[in-house]
Amino acid sequence: MRAGFLAGVLLLAGGYTWIAFAELAWLSSAGRLGPGFFPRFIGVTLVALCAWSLVAELLDGSRERLSRHWRVTLVLALFSGLFVAALDVLGGLVSMIAYMAAALAYLNRRRSMQNALLAVLLPLAIYLLFRVWLNAAVPRGLLPF
Asked: What is the separation of C-alpha 19 from the centre of its chain, rounded to a whole number of angstroms?
């Protein structure tokens, strides 16, 4: 089951990486890092880690049919789908905060103060990194920021 999942993710990561290299420019016309920098980095990292995990899984030889953590995987996949759907409606910052709050509340139930701080500060830092420092487009949504 894991090997099939890893092979599927590896194929998706390979397609993502191909698009990042084929469609997005490495440098902008001004000579600065272009829109292809982060997607290429993320794509290559995904392909490498998925390939490594798949080889390790195939060499391991254990044949566990279904992980004990399938519910966690299913819930986080649902949260991720809702996050992507909310990007255009709520905008990047609010969607990131909602996603982090929901995921941390599910995974780390006993530390509500830590979860609240992480759910606000990490998305805010990512938003400031992309929007202010890199001057990259962040989905605006219906809200003005």
From this structure: 16
Whole-angstrom CA distances from 80 to 41, 84, 85, 133, 134 are: 21, 6, 9, 26, 24
Q: Where are the domains of the chain?
A: 1-66, 69-145
* Contact present, 13 and 46 (Cβ < 8 Å): yes
- Overall pTM surpassing 0.90 (yes/no): no
The three-state secondary structure class of 33 is strand
Tell me the pLDDT tens digit for each residue of 86-120.
888 888 889 999 999 999 999 998 999 999 999 99
Question: Which neighbouring-strand residues pair with 33?
Answer: 27
Residue 15 DSSP label: H
Token pair belonging to 18: 């191909």
